[in-house]
């Protein structure tokens, strides 16, 4: 998944930057009708890890428990460490995906027909969606979230080839 992994790295770097931009006091702040920043991040990470594991043929049972542990319940520093470990697990799972099967149809656990390449795109879109919601919550708290994309790629250390 060479080209796809570039997109994964950009998404991962931007989510990590968003975590760093979030003050401890905001993670559990409640806004009417929307998930908290922590709930958005946990959902985003759970979907990412679940899809990466599914694509690699790894089991996903019990995965929710991983996100109920103390690193995911702490403040910004703890969440940054937890997200980095999570991103490394996802990266390891994606490294096991058979590139020859990226366009082979399969049925997702939700009964949808897809290909590995498309399911990976769904994961990136889901992450983008929740990261955008997190960005909006930061704006509501009068904090400007990290920019994305363009110049942000350079600032996040993503190569511009």
Instruction: Count every helix, treating DSSP H or I runs of 4 or more residues as helices.
Output: 7
Q: What summary fits the major beta sheet? A: 2 strands, antiparallel
Instruction: Please state the structural category.
Output: mainly alpha
End-to-end C-alpha gap: 17 Å
Radius of gyration, whole Å:
16 Å
Under CATH, the homologous superfamily reads dinb family like domain
Count of domains: 1
**Secondary structure: helix percent:** 55-70%
Q: Write out the strand line-up for the largest beta sheet, numbering strands in chain order.
A: 1-2
Strands, total number: 2
CATH class: Mainly Alpha
Examine the coordinates and then state which fold CATH places here, giving the name of the CATH topology.
Four Helix Bundle (Hemerythrin (Met), subunit A)
What's the order of the H and E elements?
HHHHHEEHH
Strand content: under 5%
- Could you say which overall geometry the principal axes of the C-alpha atoms support? globular
Assembly type of the chains comes to single chain
What attributes characterize this protein structure?
two-stranded antiparallel ribbon; 161 residues; mainly alpha; Four Helix Bundle (Hemerythrin (Met), subunit A)
Describe the structure in your own words.
- With 161 residues, the protein is mainly alpha-helical.
- It has one domain (2-155): Up-down Bundle (Four Helix Bundle (Hemerythrin (Met), subunit A)), CATH 1.20.120.450.
- Helices cover 61% and strands 4% of the residues.
- It is built from seven helices and two strands.
- Strands 1-2 form a two-stranded antiparallel ribbon.
- Strand 1 and strand 2 (113-115) form a beta hairpin.
- Helix 2 runs parallel beside helix 5 (76-95).
- It is globular.
């Amino acid at each position: 998944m060479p080209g796809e992994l570039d997109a994964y790295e950009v998404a991962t770097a931007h989510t990590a930057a968003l975590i760093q931009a979030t003050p401890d006091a905001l993670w559990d702040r409640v806004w009417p009708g929307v998930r908290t920043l922590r709930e958005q991040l946990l959902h985003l990470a759970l979907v990412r890890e679940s899809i990466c594991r599914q694509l690699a043929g790894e089991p996903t049972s019990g995965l929710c428990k991983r996100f109920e542990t103390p690193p995911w319940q702490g403040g910004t520093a703890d969440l940054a460490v937890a997200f980095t470990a999570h991103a490394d697990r996802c990266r390891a799972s994606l490294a096991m995906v058979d590139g020859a099967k990226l366009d082979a149809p399969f049925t997702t656990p939700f009964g949808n027909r897809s290909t590995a390449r498309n399911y990976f795109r769904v994961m990136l879109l889901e992450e983008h969606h929740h990261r955008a919601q997190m960005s909006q919550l930061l704006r509501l708290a009068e904090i400007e979230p990290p920019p994305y994309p363009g110049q942000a790629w350079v600032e996040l250390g993503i190569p511009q080839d």
